[in-house]
Amino acid sequence: MILALSGGVGGAKLALGLARVMPPEELAVIVNTADDFEHLGLSISPDIDTVTYTLAGLANRELGWGRHDETWSFMETMEALGGETWFRLGDRDIALHVERTRRLNNGETLSAVTADLCRRLGIKSRVVPMSDDPVRTRLRTEEGWLDFQEYFVRRRCEPVVLELLFQGAGAARAHPEFLAALADPSLQAIVICPSNPFISVEPILAIPGVRQALIDSPAPIIAVSPIIAGQAVKGPTAKMMTELGMDPSAGTVAHRYHDLLDGYVIDHADMSEVVSIDARVTLAQTLMRTMEDREALARTVLDAAAVLRRRKATR
Question: What one-character DSSP code corresponds to residue 200?
Fold first, then answer.
């Protein structure tokens, strides 16, 4: 079994690569839920949906979110009626949110709803929310505190970020399947996908017991850098790092995970960073433009994890 920790687009791309080069039923993707929010009366889980649509072959590659076969009649009508349209929901996407909301209101857990929707979409890998308890990312900016989607979508990441808070994380419980997998002696590797460390990975790590369970796991932990030559492929990672007083580099991300990593995959463009990273470094092409890129990077990660496993076994 391989366990992957993922946010949205970048993590979903690598998760898809992994699912295509290994038995997909042996892959479990633990997904950040701190981006979740209520909108128009619906329960929205952006990262779960991105991972789900990607693994189901339904993702909109041009937008980076939503479905590729989308129509927009709902939003057009909403705009004509003067309603809120800053968070765009396609017609097919809304069906998923309506069904999720209905089932959550009837008492089902987010993980149970997610598992069933994935099954109905033909996904063989497990997609597991980091927790069934609510955790919400909030950002302190020069304009005050903002909810994540207000900052990310409505304000398009424009406000300067001064601090992050994962509201509810201290009281949240990691999903039991997540903790059980970490303790499983048959676990082959834990992969930290190339997701934003601040808003995608660290909310998962903020749940009590998770970081220590990762450290205690018998499986090697290998991360893929979300930074290439000082820039993020997508999203505000580099911008946030600069605003928080950090050098936007692959090495800086490695230092954020310093107590966890056995291995780290960085792009060839960041070869100069190797000497500053306290983990076994693998150089690769980490930019995933095509399906072949996703599969190649997945194979590189699995090969590097196999080497790390053998090293751990001989200690």
Answer: I
